[in-house]
Predict the 3D structure of the following.
Amino acid sequence: MFFGHKNKPQSELQVDLGDLQNEKENLASFLQLHLKVSVSQVENKLTVDSEKVSLKDLEHVVNKFVYHRDLNNTHWVSVEGASTVKINRFKVIEKKEKHEPEPPHQTAMQSWGL
């Protein structure tokens, strides 16, 4: 407690599911099972009691959920701010096929050096 700073735990952490709203109940159950904490739904996010869980632990378990549901090819987990873990979707970058122009064919006159 140097210089009057108090290390207050935040009252709640949030998980932003992004475009995975249909996985909200599955993730809530997964968090309750692995973290042994109460999880509530607030709008499009899940709220976790942070007195028992750190942000790093929450990120780890959400990442584990993404892998267990085989979503790791399309989604990734990040920490935003001091209290939010977000599930992000990878951006799809379409590759354009490269069609290199063929070099012009030499005529008989050019190949003989005439």
Q: What stands out?
A: The helical segments are 24-35, 55-68, 108-111.
